[in-house]
Write a structure and sequence with these properties.
TIM Barrel, Urease, subunit C, domain 1, globular, binds zinc ion, 474 residues, binds N-(aminocarbonyl)-beta-alanine
């Protein structure tokens, strides 16, 4: 059992900022305090001039996800490693409902992870088909350590459930402590606009956004919230992107409903203008990027507590999947965005982000004065851990918690890009962005897994997290 004493750091939690030493014994934090006596066998780390944050918790990731004849290019090792370099030590990924039996789906996803996990991880279960027995199987997800499910109001004939089906799923979920996640868009409108666009010969990436209007997202948020209210179930709206969505969330929260929301860095830092660039396919994700006024409302929502979480929806694809990159010294290429070069509907949907989230949000959220350091920790670690049944084991700095720590150098400056990000893809959305403040050392359950540019983590070191039932709104 390894013992560490980390001296002279400035600890940042969701609630406070203070100077203290941290004693780690084995996998957990044993003590936090000033001038802690060092046990004889302790390894010493000096954190003078550094902040110490709880490891980031990214509750929205897609690793090794099959889509449009290819697969998202980070698997459960490469994506975990990228997460760790960016200061994130817990990730939650989505199980596809590829089999009529939910237990079989869960087993298949554990097999997909295999021995690859390098940080701690959990699963959400996508509910995209309602078979006779699906409702009966839902409560058993909790025994499998899965306390959340995702439903979709878009992707007709593929992932979408009808409103009636969503209501029935939510009713069972609510009774058993399962939290329902909602992908809010209007699948019928999208299908009609997409058919019209293709018939008119519109094939470029901007049409991905033009065929998925914000109004569809806005009404789907209110529809989902109303269904949840009638089902007496809690709800968490993923990847919120439009001003009107935040308005709807504020409306339902003012009425005391247990409804929460997440946004992602891509919606805070880019607009649909990115899709008009020659390499616009890099920014194709669903829901799409919106406008500057949508961004402004999202920032307000983060500041005033209407939104609780910044996650990533990490789902990377190569920009040019015919040209190999070197990953850990080996050439790798995976078909990607080029699949849709003649037709926006064939561009795999999704962006890299799991490693970018904390460094980008620090410089352009905290550094720009939009968020306090404590709000940053709340949005990226503490709130997601609470909402998804992981707190206080994850998401905070407390004796007894897992020793998942990020030592953060607030003075470190760098020009960010694909070389820093460690994602297994050939581009980065934030190429050339100037950063001040960066994670320099990362601990996962007391193991130092990132030391500056050195990767000390291992395949198989990450552990599956049995999450607790939903306890109440944040
Ligand atoms: O474009 C995205 N976001 N791909 C991942 C799937 C989803 O709906 O979250
Ligand atoms: Zn989604
Ligand atoms: Zn997603």
């Amino acid at each position: 059992m390894m013992t560490w004493i980390i001296r002279n750091g400035t600890l940042i939690t969701a609630a406070e900022t203070f100077s203290a030493d941290i004693l780690i014994e084995g996998e957990t934090i044993a003590a936090i305090g000033k001038h802690l006596p060092a046990p004889e066998n302790a390894r010493l780390m000096d954190a003078s001039g550094l902040y110490i944050l709880p490891g980031g918790v990214d509750v929205h990731c897609h690793f090794d996800l099959p889509m449009f004849g290819t697969v998202s290019s980070d698997d459960h090792y490469t994506g975990h490693k990228a997460a760790a370099f960016g200061g994130t030590t817990t990730v939650i990924d989505f199980i596809s409902q590829d089999d009529p039996s939910l237990p079989a789906c869960v087993e298949a996803w554990h097999n997909r992870v295999g021995g690859k996990a390098a940080v701690d991880y959990g699963f959400h279960m996508n509910i995209t088909h309602l078979y006779e027995h699906t409702l009966e199987e839902l409560p058993d997800l909790l025994n499998a350590g899965i306390s959340s499910i995702k439903v979709f109001t878009a992707y007709n004939n593929r992932l979408r459930l009808s409103d009636g089906e969503i209501f029935r799923v939510m009713r069972v979920a609510g009774r058993h402590g399962l939290l329902t996640l909602l992908h809010a868009e209007n699948g019928d409108v999208i299908d009609t606009l997409t058919a019209d666009a293709l018939a008119s010969g519109h094939t470029s990436p901007i049409w991905h956004a033009r065929t998925r209007p914000a109004w569809g997202a806005v009404e789907a948020v209110l529809r989902g919230a109303a269904l949840a209210a009638q089902a007496e179930a809690p709800l968490y709206v993923v990847h919120m992107n439009a001003a009107g969505e935040v308005d709807q969330l504020a409306y339902v929260r003012e009425r005391g409903l247990p409804i929460m929301g997440e946004t992602c860095p891509q919606y805070l830092f880019f607009t649909e203008d990115a899709l008009t660039r020659p390499d616009g396919a890099k920014w194709v994700c669903s829901p799409p990027l919106r406008t500057a006024s949508d961004q402004q409302r999202l920032w307000e929502g983060l500041k005033d507590g209407t939104l609780q979480v910044v996650a990533t929806d990490h789902c990377p694809f190569f920009y040019n999947g015919t040209r190999p990159i070197l990953y850990e010294g080996q050439p790798v290429s995976i078909p990607g965005k080029e699949l849709g070069q003649d037709d926006f509907t064939r561009i795999p949907n999704g962006l890299p982000g799991v490693g970018d989230r904390l460094p980008i949000l620090w410089t352009y959220g905290v550094g720009s004065g939009r968020l306090t350091p404590n709000q940053f920790v709340a949005l990226t670690a503490t709130n997601p851990a609470r909402i998804f049944g992981l707190y206080p084991r994850k998401g905070t700095l407390l004796p007894g918690a897992d020793a998942d720590l990020v030592l953060w150098d607030p003075k470190k400056r760098l020009t960010y890009g694909v070389d820093h990000a460690h994602h297994r893809t050939d581009y980065n959305l934030y190429e050339g962005w100037e950063l001040t403040g960066y994670p320099v050392r990362v601990f996962l359950r007391g193991n130092l897994i990132v030391d500056e540019e050195k990767w000390l983590g291992k395949r198989g070191q990450g552990r599956f997290l049995h999450r607790n039932p939903f306890e109440g709104r944040v």
